[in-house]
Predict the 3D structure of the following.
Amino acid sequence: MKILVINCGSSSLKYQLIDMDNEAVLAKGLCERIAIEGSKLTHKASGKEDYVVETPMETHKTAVELVLKALVDPVHGVIKSVDEISAVGHRVLHGGAVYSESIVVNDDVKRVIRECFDLGPLHNPANLIGIEACEAALPGKKNVAVFDTAFHQTMPEKSFMYAIPHEYYEKYHIRRYGFHGTSHSFVSKRAIEFLGLDKNNSKVIVCHLGNGASLSAVLNGKCFDTSMGLTPLEGLIMGTRSGDLDPAVIQFIANKEGKDINEMLNILNKKSGILGMSGVSSDFRDVGKAAKEGNHDAEVALDAYKHRVIKYIGAYTAAMNGVDAIIFTAGVGENDAAMRKEISEGVSFLGIKIDDEANKKRGEEIVISTPDSKVKVAVIPTNEELAIARETLALL
Ligand code: AMP
């Protein structure tokens, strides 16, 4: 059985076709610059050369059509007909407080995704177009919505309520939702299995450190707290996002620079984080290189980044009254051994000891703490596409 996974971003569409019999990726690819000049599809099929199509893509609908065409292409494709696709799993950014699990798309689901446009203005409209394009191109096939917010719906009120007048929660559902839920769910479940923890008596902290970054505190297999909020701007310092800051900073800069609130949010989402602090790049490799070459701002950016992760680990350990395992995942978490080591050293008061040899390894699930470490520390590569495909299969 083959499942297509679609992940529509604001101007991009990532996809994978997965054979669920052996969970092998048959093809994957990316449509970039949708609705922008210079749109491009890059299609990678196992055992074949990359196939690049440069053609205008006015909307995500055009992108979905091109993806299906590439999948059945006589030379570059991997299936003879789109009929071979059993179902489509869609990553959907925001399900509000309605969905705590994945669901087969129907009119109600589409209505909720539409109602959440305000909460996910860049992603939810694109997600809905992706779903409707698949409904049109693959009639009769099930589409499953897998929400980034779903895993975090188990958070207690004390974790998700903001300390602002209650009327805003009642009127507009202003609260913390959390994101990267598919990754936090996949990694925390795998951590419990891999480390042999008792799910019903477990305290796990997942550090999803990629270009976007978030931590979650997973108590007895369920999300207890997470660092992102109403939107993915809250929490850790990220590639281009500020994470936590005093909201008064926004008013101060806006007044001084004559900017409106939308411009300020754009700065905090796209021009801040390690990019804004270092002035070098949003890519941790570039910033790391600049820091090594003596760029002070780059060094401070990385120090501040680690400092914030350490503070959150400390906070979540306290909130859960303990921690059994700390897991690193995503681009930085999986690849940057020095970052893992320094963050772990920052919480060494917990009795954590890192095995430097194990920590050097890459690309595999591995325990990087020593056998006598009081808290287990591990790397578990995230795989959001496979998680979406599994959720989709489970609903067929
Ligand atoms: P993701 O959003 O999970 O794809 O992660 C992307 C981030 O991972 C980028 O900012 C990269 O700089 C970072 N990254 C990838 N490989 C490495 C590496 N070897 N060392 C440090 N950062 C890395």
User: Anything to note?
Assistant: Residues 210-211, 239, 283-285, 330-332, 335-336 surround adenosine monophosphate (CB under 6 Å). The mean pLDDT is 96. The longest strand covers residues 24-32. The chain has 15 helices and 14 strands.
